[in-house]
């Protein structure tokens, strides 16, 4: 999503006549490197050079740093390193932020990146050569580079080798920092050397270095034991120690440990600070203990005289909203103003989300909140969550009460504001919610416009449309609205898109497209749809999409359009079509990306051991045939009854 957003902004800027400069390309290179997309990062470097822009060392260093994190990219790192050296020698790289002054030498940060790449790959002989090269250039390794070397040594040779490397660091006059200890602690944890782990924790704490949350989460000790290790030497702030352990327990979803640590703080007479209270309130919120959270909030103000910050208020607003306590939610939001704290984006998102979840949405309150957000000072920038909450509220209201013309105008305005004014990249849920609102309000033109916008975005991000189709009710609703308003060509267009992006199609969609074909006289299209779904050799083979009712609908279409010769073959094809086994491939081709979207109906994965026909269905088919004036109607009736008698004798009409 970040890359899509960057490309959208880049495209809008270039379309408006803005010429990309060195900094534009640096950002595009950086975001591609962050996504580990080195191929496209390289392409952006080439684009920059083709435009005649003389780069600084920064984009090269960014790409080199990316390579250094992946051992298999070592050859690309070496090639880039040689290119950097050559460009510096040829005067093709400028110094720092200058546009004209040339870089006379490679700096230590860039050397650190290539050293990191060699160490990551375990090439320590090459690392020594680079250190000699630096020395000849008058550059001495700093602590950052020594830590990079230490990381490589520990990774390839273990903790003991790392401890020896740290001794060499100290002998050269360097004192270990927090990152040094982090490397050693990770190694001790990885090698399950618990005594060494405790020793290193105590030493790092005595020098004022707090281990990372990631490491604390993995510690095999009881939280209280960890407090004793980290706090007993007094170099670390005791509240900070507790807060770190509380946060680690929260991230591990160990809420009992959070309460245990809070209780231990009180017994040790360690006063909690605003960060502690924020984490406690967050824990109570996630546990659904709203009344207890309210009591804790009152305690921090009245007893401890702590001024709540925006994070505290965010938790309380969110907690009330999730519990449906709208009155209290607005009370805490208004209380922020009394404390001189302007509501943040998160506050507005929580309020709008809570309003959208109400059984009966009050759109007047929601619209007033949106108006307040727009005029907020300092400005609050809406996010995709902001817009999705607005859209969800309108969709809910449209389903239950419909939308007035004024409400429809508001929805249209904010739908287009999302991209035109705020440059928010809509996701699949944005489109689904707006489409649902317009469909429920019978606004077909608006609904089709939204759908077209989504298809256009899918040209750059196909997952948007796949995720949308993974919750098929929205598209089925749109198809049915098209049928209601006799827009049958649009039904076929929706069907074609569905088959392009998704291998699974729910049966109601098949019935909709057959009905549209019937109304338009597109019998060949209807035949292609049905035979494609029932013929194993076709890429569209999905026999589970045609049940008994859909088969009867198709046969009715054949009778109406006097295609009697097709009835017996389709009955046999329907009977013999082998349904797919339950496997990943039998559902959506992109089912792994749909794990975040609403699940497909169970019927899409269902396996029927055999087909069945009911007497009512057979009776309906026979009745249609007997009412037909076609010259082959009587023979076709006999063929159908013979087929049923042979394969579905229980379904013969009595």
Automatic annotation (TrEMBL):
Keywords: Repeat
Keyword Nucleotidyltransferase listed: no
Superkingdom to which the source organism belongs: Eukaryota
PROSITE patterns: PPR (PS51375)
Keyword Heme: no
GO biological process terms held by the UniProt record: mitochondria-nucleus signaling pathway
Lineage: Eukaryota, Fungi, Fungi incertae sedis, Zoopagomycota, Kickxellomycotina
Protein name: Pentacotripeptide-repeat region of PRORP domain-containing protein
Taxonomic source organism: Coemansia erecta
PPR repeats mapped onto the chain: 107-141, 238-272, 273-308, 309-343
């Amino acid at each position: 999503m970040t890359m899509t957003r960057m490309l959208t902004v880049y495209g809008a800027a270039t379309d408006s006549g803005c010429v990309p400069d060195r900094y534009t390309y640096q950002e595009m290179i950086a975001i591609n490197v962050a996504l580990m997309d080195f191929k496209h990062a390289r392409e952006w470097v080439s684009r920059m050079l083709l435009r005649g822009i003389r780069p600084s060392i920064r984009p090269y260093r960014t790409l080199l740093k990316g390579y250094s994190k992946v051992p298999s990219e070592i050859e690309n790192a070496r090639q880039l390193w040689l290119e950097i050296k050559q460009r510096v020698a040829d005067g093709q790289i400028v110094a720092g932020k200058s546009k004209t002054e040339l870089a006379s030498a490679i700096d230590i940060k860039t050397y650190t990146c290539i050293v990191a790449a060699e160490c990551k790959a375990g090439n320590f002989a090459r690392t020594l050569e680079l250190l000699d090269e630096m020395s000849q250039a008058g550059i001495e390794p700093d602590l950052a580079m020594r830590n990079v070397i230490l990381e490589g040594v520990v990774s390839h040779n273990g903790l003991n080798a790392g401890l020896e490397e740290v001794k060499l660091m100290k002998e050269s006059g360097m004192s270990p920092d927090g990152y040094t200890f982090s490397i050693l602690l990770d190694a001790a944890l990885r090698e399950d050397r618990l005594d060494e782990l405790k020793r290193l924790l105590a030493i790092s704490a005595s020098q004022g270095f707090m281990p990372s949350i990631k490491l604390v989460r993995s510690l095999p000790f009881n939280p209280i034991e960890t407090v004793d290790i980290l706090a007993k030497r007094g170099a670390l702030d005791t509240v900070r120690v507790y807060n770190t352990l509380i946060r680690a327990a929260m991230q591990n979803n160990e809420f009992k440990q959070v309460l245990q640590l809070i209780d231990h703080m009180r017994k040790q007479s360690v006063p909690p600070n605003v960060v502690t209270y924020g984490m406690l309130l967050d824990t109570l919120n996630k546990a659904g203990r709203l009344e207890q959270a309210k009591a804790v909030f009152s305690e921090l103000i009245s007893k401890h005289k702590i001024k709540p910050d925006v994070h505290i208020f965010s938790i309380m607003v969110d907690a009330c909203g999730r519990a449906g306590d709208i009155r209290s939610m607005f009370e805490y939001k208004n209380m922020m103003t009394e404390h001189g704290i302007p509501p943040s984006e998160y506050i507005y998102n929580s309020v709008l989300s809570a309003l959208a979840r109400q059984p009966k949405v009050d759109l007047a309150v929601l619209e007033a909140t949106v108006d307040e957000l727009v005029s907020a000072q300092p400005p609050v920038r809406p996010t995709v969550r902001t817009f999705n909450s607005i859209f969800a509220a309108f969709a809910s209201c449209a389903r239950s009460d419909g939308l007035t013309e004024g409400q429809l105008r508001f929805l249209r305005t904010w739908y287009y504001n999302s991209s035109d004014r705020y440059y928010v990249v809509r996701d699949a849920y944005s489109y689904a919610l707006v489409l649902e609102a317009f469909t429920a309000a019978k606004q077909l033109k608006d609904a089709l416009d939204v759908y077209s916008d989504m298809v256009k975005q899918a040209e750059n991000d196909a997952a948007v449309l796949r995720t949308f189709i993974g919750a098929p009710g929205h598209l089925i609703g749109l198809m049915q609205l098209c049928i209601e308003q006799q827009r049958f060509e649009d039904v076929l267009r929706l069907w074609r898109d569905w088959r392009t992006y998704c291998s699974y199609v729910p049966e109601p969609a098949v019935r909709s497209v057959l009905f549209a074909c019937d109304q338009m006289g597109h019998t060949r299209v209807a035949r292609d749809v049905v035979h494609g779904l029932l013929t194993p050799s076709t890429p569209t083979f999905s026999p589970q999409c045609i049940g008994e009712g859909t088969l009867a609908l198709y046969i009715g279409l054949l009778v109406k359009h006097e295609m009697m010769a097709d009835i017996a073959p389709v009955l046999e094809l329907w009977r013999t079509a082998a349904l797919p086994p339950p496997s990943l491939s039998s559902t959506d081709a992109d089912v792994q990306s749909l794990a975040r979207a609403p699940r497909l109906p169970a019927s899409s994965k269902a396996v029927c051991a055999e087909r069945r026909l009911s007497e009512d269905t057979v009776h309906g088919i026979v009745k249609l045939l007997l009412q037909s004036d076609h010259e082959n109607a009587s023979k076709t009736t006999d063929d159908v009854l013979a087929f049923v008698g042979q394969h579905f004798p229980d379904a013969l009409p009595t």
